[in-house]
Amino acid sequence: MMPSATPHGFELTLPEWAAAELATRAQRELSSLEDRMRLVIELARTNFQRDTGGPFAAAVFDETSARLVAIGVNRVVPMRCSSAHAEVMALSLAQQAAGTHDLGGPGQPPHQLVVNWCPCAMCCGAVIWSGVRSLVIAGSGPELEQLTGFDEGPIHPSWAAELTRRGVTVTDGVLRDETCAMFRQFAASGRAVYNARQG
Amino acid sequence: MMPSATPHGFELTLPEWAAAELATRAQRELSSLEDRMRLVIELARTNFQRDTGGPFAAAVFDETSARLVAIGVNRVVPMRCSSAHAEVMALSLAQQAAGTHDLGGPGQPPHQLVVNWCPCAMCCGAVIWSGVRSLVIAGSGPELEQLTGFDEGPIHPSWAAELTRRGVTVTDGVLRDETCAMFRQFAASGRAVYNARQG
């Protein structure tokens, strides 16, 4: 493909169905971690079923009020952007809503990121830089890679300890079986896995 | 700060001076790694001196033609986005120009990313997902953190081997002294360092 004129900006957006979902749910309270993860799994499933991205979603909550601040879904292929993982989408949208790059900055409530598996090599770093105070995941074992074929990349061998050391608490294993069932649905659907360097 | 209405998209842009620079230099050939790094150091210096972001820049080249495809500078604070590192900006803009999330995809020439230091924990992953075939850096030691105060995060202990194993060759030490001199200029300027969770 010939390169087009060199752009000097790019926009990343949620799919229409997710923007509508967000408008409905924004500022609603979701008190339990299970309820939060259930929302995330539902977003991930809808994302691949509607062909708007991979089977990954994330949501940011205000831990004080239990309110939903932002959601994200994987947008790599439709947005033509390999960094448009669900975590980056949700964290960036939460930062736009909060008006700052630092969700742990002055005057901010503690923020929590809920994701449907252990963040990949890139997103582990993105979580730290975002300023969130806690990370909730459905699992962190090899199941994601085994069930879906997606590559998690070279995750730091002590990633959870590194997050904890930097003030981000990690809760693992929330709705793990439900998440694996959704990954199996994705695999059974025969949809594309888009790992890098397929040329 | 009160959260505003929940956004469902966000835009990341280069500063005006960098967009103008890109318009001037796009598609120009820069044959040597030193010439490419010199451009990157100049962009990083201009970025902090004009108060449009931190002292980090990146550029993507088509390795076959030696042409400049995209540039990026750190935009974290002005864009209110902790993921807006120079590497993410340059890689995302190159992907927009190429019309695909995979710079190593079918029909693409080999792409090279040139950055003024070892990518942070997040950007190591971003480099892998981008599809570039090579990474050129000015250095990878503790000098960046020591001279500027910026945190590189939990970089994988075998990051260079992990990149190589995934088909990304790494060239280290290009214009290292010139880069450290620029970091010293940044430190002497007294400008802010924006690491996460400053609240």
Explain this structure to me?
Two copies of one chain form a homodimer. With 199 residues, chain A is α/β, with parallel strands linked by helices. Chain A has one domain: Cytidine Deaminase, domain 2 (3-Layer(aba) Sandwich). Helix content of chain A is 41%, strand content 15%. Chain A has eight helices and six strands, in the order βααββααβαβααβα. The first copy, chain A, has helices at residues 16-25, 33-49, 76-79, 86-98, 121-130, 143-148, 159-165, 176-189; strands spanning 9-13, 57-62, 67-73, 111-115, 134-137, 169-171. In chain A, strands 3-2-4-5-6 form a five-stranded mixed β-sheet, with helices on both faces. The interface between A and B is large, with 74 and 74 residues.
Topology:
2 copies of one chain form a homodimer.
Chain A: E1 9-13, H1 16-25, H2 33-49, E2 57-62, E3 67-73, H3 76-79, H4 86-98, E4 111-115, H5 121-130, E5 134-137, H6 143-148, H7 159-165, E6 169-171, H8 176-189
Parallel strand pairs in A: 4-5, 5-6
Antiparallel strand pairs in A: 2-3, 2-4
Helix pairs in contact in A: 2-8, 4-5
Task: Describe the structure concisely for a colleague.
Two copies of one chain form a homodimer. Chain A has eight helices and six strands.
